[in-house]
């Protein structure tokens, strides 16, 4: 059974520092991996999706890498801003008939202090 | 423009009193999902519809049901809510054939008192 872990559970950084968020998964047979942002009491916003054949994806200040063989993904947020404060979740989609069935980590809660 | 809309945003119900949560989408996606997210936990898939085909997860309690009367709407019914059902309920949609990212609604925060 796939398990997704995000460590640390919480992180606080001063504005301007780069953020590094980690995600690990136990079964390397994945179709894709997504990173989501969740603001308090809100739904999920997809940030980046990495297909299993890709090594990384970039969008603005965000960069996500994927090392499928070691079961790891990292989300980098450059030059953090207070508006980046949120919980960041990663999720993997399995192969075979697991389409759309995402296995989530519990998230890393990020606070960026001015 | 909101593409996946959930109503209500907040719902309070009493122990044992049936409740229905609503989700609608304007994306014409053929798959709709319901996830449950308890406080500080990972979202957990309850079930999904692929067109009219209902797919229940093995560990979803019988207390939870779903209806999809048409492509645009999907409902989550909790027949006899317990205190442990207090959670955020997230609706998501996707287009199965493309296997691209899911689109989530803003969620309904359900409190069972």
Key descriptive features of the protein:
A: 114 residues; mainly beta; 5-stranded antiparallel sheet; 11 strands; B: 113 residues
Helices and strands of chain A, in N-to-C order?
A: EEEEEEEEEEE
Helix content of chain B: under 10%
**How much helix is in the residues of chain A?**
under 10%
Q: Residue ranges of chain A: pLDDT <50 for 5 or more in a row?
A: none
Beginning-to-end CA distance, first to last residue of chain A = 41 Å
Helix segment tally of chain A: 0
Oligomer designation: heterodimer
Summarize the main sheet of chain A. 6 strands, mixed
Mean pLDDT of chain A: 93
Number of E-state strands of chain B: 11
Beta-strand percentage range of chain A: over 45%
Secondary structural class of chain B: mainly beta
What structural class do the secondary elements of chain A suggest?
Answer: mainly beta
Specify the overall morphology of chain A.
globular
Query: What is the number of strand segments of chain A?
Result: 11
- Please tell me how large the radius of gyration of chain A is: 14 Å
User: Stretches of chain B where pLDDT falls below 50 for ≥5 residues?
Assistant: none
Q: What would the principal axes of the Cα set say about the shape of chain B?
A: globular
Largest sheet of chain B, in brief, is: 7 strands, mixed
Q: What letter string, H or E per element, gives the SSE order of chain B?
A: EEEEEEEEEEE
């Amino acid at each position: 059974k796939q398990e997704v872990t995000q460590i640390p559970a919480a992180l606080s950084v001063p504005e301007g520092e780069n953020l590094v968020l980690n995600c690990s998964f136990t079964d390397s047979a994945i179709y894709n991996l997504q990173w989501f942002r969740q603001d308090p009491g809100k739904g999920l916003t997809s940030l980046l999706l990495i297909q299993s054949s890709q090594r990384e994806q970039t969008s603005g200040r965000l960069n996500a890498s994927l090392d499928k063989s070691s079961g790891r993904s990292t989300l980098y947020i450059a030059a953090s801003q207070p508006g980046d404060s949120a919980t960041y979740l990663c999720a993997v989609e399995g192969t075979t008939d697991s389409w759309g069935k995402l296995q989530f980590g519990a998230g890393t809660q990020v606070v960026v202090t001015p | 423009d909101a593409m996946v809309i959930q109503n209500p945003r907040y719902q309070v119900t009493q122990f044992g009193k049936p409740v229905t949560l609503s989700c609608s989408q304007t994306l014409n996606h053929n798959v709709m999902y319901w996830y449950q997210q308890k406080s500080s936990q990972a979202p957990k898939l309850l079930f999904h519809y692929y067109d009219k085909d209902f797919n229940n997860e093995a560990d979803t309690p019988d207390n939870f049901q779903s209806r999809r009367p048409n492509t645009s709407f999907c409902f989550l019914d909790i027949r006899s809510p317990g205190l442990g059902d207090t959670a955020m309920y997230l609706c998501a949609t996707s287009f199965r054939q493309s296997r691209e990212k899911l689109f989530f609604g803003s969620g309904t925060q359900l409190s069972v008192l």
